[in-house]
Amino acid sequence: MTLTYKQTELFYTSKGIGNPLVFLHGFLESSKIWEPFIDELSKKRQVICIDLPGHGKSGNLNPVHTMELYADAVHVILKHLKVEKISLVGHSMGGYVSLAFCEKFPDLMERLVLLNSSPAPDSEEKKINRDKAIALVRKNKKAFVKMAVSNLVTKESNLKFEKEMNELIKDALSFSEEGIISALKGMKIRTDKTEVLKAFQGPKYIVASEQDPVINYTEIQEIAQKCDCAFKSLPDGHLSFLENRTMVFEFLHFID
User: What's the confidence (pLDDT) of residue 18?
Assistant: First the structure.
């Protein structure tokens, strides 16, 4: 389904009734990553999956997609669906958006799950790497996407999930250069949301992977403790929805 927001088409899916669970994907991903979870979870609740602007089938809103701008787009869809209270699951960049949403629309929040994500802002080194990534996208989008997606998981996972990884890459290659760069710029300037996470009074969970190349495992453990989050440990890389699908599925049943 699509909704027009600021002359831009936003894509989302909704299945099931009541007790809404909202999924937000990460950078270079789309709502497709949640498809293996939808049928079973939607038997007992409403499951909403959203393509963030510049990703999947959603258009671009701005030259810089801040996490707050993404959060506004999510809010417009939820308002259209007349949703009142939500449980929000954000993978990677989707987690950054989830925290921005939590800060802007706290009255809508019931539960929060950060999957391979963190409230911490980019380090100075990461900001430099964002600029390098933007330059590479402009020079050779295909090379950047292949490298960026492959680097999210271990060598073993790249082999084990070769078909699925190729599908992720194929999907990401369909995104516009503008959409990819807008996200990189937005992530680079995102603010520290640790205090937002700490202040959130509802059930909150951090799911982290021991071999995640993006989110430092030790650091996110410390953040979880500081912010009074329940902590779930997984064994593999950054794409837990793929590498540890069964464990993530069981966890999503558990939170309710």
Answer: 96
